[in-house]
Structure formats: structure tokens, C-alpha cells
Amino acid sequence: AAGPAILPSLLQCDFGDLRSEVEQLTAAGARVLHLDVMDGHFVPNLTYGMPIVEGLRRHTNMPLDVHLMISDPMAYAKPMVDAGADLLTFHVEAVQDSVDVAGQIRDLGVGVGVAINPDTDFAKLDDCLDAVDMVLVMSVNAGFGGQSFNPVALDRLKSLKQRKPDLLLEIDGGIKVDTIGAAREAGCDLFVVGSAIFGQHDYETAINELTLAMNG
Ligand code: DX5
Ligand code: ZN
């Protein structure tokens, strides 16, 4: 990754006009898209799967960062890669053997991330830190947009940055102009943003304000 980036999360967008959403985000300066895949089982919410990823792939060259909030990530990893995902993140809570899952995803030829919810024992990540490209530190419980930021994420980012300086760090949940600066200071590289972009009329202004706040 070339410097820190703000990743719009396609969760609160207009699904009736995805092509226009992608065009607006491109014009607003977005460089990577974050796709929230939920199965109604790992989380009590249901979003979308491969057809949407594949449809987005046809409309943009931006890397697609796919956040799998699903109980059986390996059942869909290959189909997601075939649909055009560039990076696949699974939840550490969803799998028995995170090292094995990370290895299997990496063997598919894409980047691999591991995500952890705020209430999950942080030590659960220890095993797989050497097996992933990225850690997604959740600052809300996975499942819904528009929740408020849990600062436990900041301590986790700092700890990860110290232990593994080369690991890519991503944060997701409640990232707004008043939280993004602290996340950047804690060592975060990739900032997933839902409501603070899609709740605004002008995506470019929203991204510019977030970028300013990020650079403090
Ligand atoms: C939550 C999703 C997020 C969500 C963030 O489960 O992973 O990507 O869209 O939304 P905000 O920015 O509104 O917290
Ligand atoms: Zn997400």
C-alpha cells in the first residue's frame, strides 16, 4: 500500500445504482473499495455475495477489499477470488485454525487479512500474525454500519504496530473526522468508512475532510 488510505464501505450506499456510486467514489478520490459480506449467521445481518463483487469488478479497476463476516469463509473464498476480490479478510472468531485458513486464502493468489471483534480475546490473533498480510481491527461489533467507535481498537493497533511494524493495519467501525486521527496515530494504514461518507451529500468533501483529520 502506498501510504494511508480511506476505504469507502459499500454497506450504506445506494444498491439500486451501484455503478453511479462507484463513479462518484472514483471522482471523489477513493483508491480501494471495502465490501461487507454478511451471511445472516456469523452476524445477524445479510448483505451480498459473489454477483455483486463480480458486478463491481466490471465497473472499476480499484482493488476490492472483501470483509467476510461469514461463518464458513473457506466455502466462499475461491468463488470470491474468481469474482474479483483482491484481498480477503476472514474473522478469527469464525474459524478453528486461523493459520490454515490464512494459508489456504494466500494460496488462492490474493492478499489475506484476519479480523477481530472488540469483545474477542486479543490473544486469539497471536498464532496467525505471521500468516496474514493485514489485520482488521474492528472498532465496532461486525454486523451493522452506524455504530459508535470502541477505543479498545486503538490499543490493539498500537500493540500490533509495535510487534509487527510491517503488517498492514486496517480499522473498521465508527471512523469519522473525530476518530480517524487517533487511529492514524496508533499506526493504522487503512480506514474503512461507511456513514461518514454515505451520510454526506458530497463524497469528495467527506473524503477530503477525513483525509485532513487523518493527517491531523
Ligand atoms: C460493520 C462493517 C463496516 C461498516 C462501517 O460490520 O464492517 O464496514 O460499514 O460503517 P460505519 O463507518 O458507519 O461504522
Ligand atoms: Zn467492514
UniProtKB/TrEMBL annotation:
Pathway noted in the entry: Carbohydrate degradation
Gene behind this protein: rpe
Binding site for substrate: 9, 67, 143-146, 172-174, 194-195
EC number annotated for this UniProt entry: 5.1.3.1
MF terms (GO), sorted A to Z: D-ribulose-phosphate 3-epimerase activity
Enzymatic reactions: D-ribulose 5-phosphate = D-xylulose 5-phosphate
Cofactor(s) the protein requires to work: Fe(2+); Mn(2+); Co(2+); a divalent metal cation
Function (record text): Catalyzes the reversible epimerization of D-ribulose 5-phosphate to D-xylulose 5-phosphate.
Record InterPro entries: Aldolase_TIM, Ribul_P_3_epim, Ribul_P_3_epim-like, RibuloseP-bd_barrel
Active-site residues per Swiss-Prot or TrEMBL entry: 36, 172
Similarity section: Belongs to the ribulose-phosphate 3-epimerase family.
Name of this chain's protein: Ribulose-phosphate 3-epimerase
Binding site residues for a divalent metal cation: 34, 36, 67, 172
Keywords in alphabetical order: Carbohydrate metabolism, Isomerase, Metal-binding
Principal EC category: isomerase
Cofactor binding summary note: Binds 1 divalent metal cation per subunit.
